[in-house]
Design goal:
alpha+beta, Ribosomal Protein L22, Chain A, three-stranded antiparallel beta sheet, two-stranded antiparallel ribbon, 4 helices, 5 strands, globular, lipid biosynthesis, fatty acid metabolism
Length: 117
């Protein structure tokens, strides 16, 4: 296996909370149905993860927010699932495995993604 892409992103939790409150349909646009009911701290981590995935792919312009979903099973690391344009781009460059690390501190959510072929 070899690393074909990395991405990192940070999201200010309070700023995301304010935007979600101000723009009524923003949560529907950014998050899959399974993600929407999470606390804002977790949502900020998911935004950071989605942005980090895009960066790992070279930030092609046709990626959709719903094309990346972060799932979490208690006691296990978070898992990235991809579909649509993200899955197509990942297949084009041979990505077979995603690694994700999420961290929260000082009101900031951070995501680090490694794409492996």
């Amino acid at each position: 296996m070899s690393i074909v892409g990395i991405g990192v992103d940070v999201v200010d939790v309070a700023r995301l909370a304010e935007r979600l409150e101000r723009v009524p349909r923003l949560a529907e646009r950014l998050f899959t149905e399974a993600e929407r009911d999470l606390p804002v701290r977790s949502l900020a981590g998911r935004v950071a993860a989605k942005e980090a995935v895009a960066k790992a792919l070279g930030s092609p312009g046709d990626l959709g927010w719903h094309d990346v979903e972060v799932r979490r099973v208690p006691g296990h690391p978070p898992v990235i699932t991809v579909s649509g344009a993200v899955a197509r781009r990942a297949a084009e460059i041979g990505i077979v495995r995603w690694h994700l690390s999420l961290s929260h501190d000082g009101g900031i959510a951070t995501a680090f993604v490694v794409a492996e072929a």
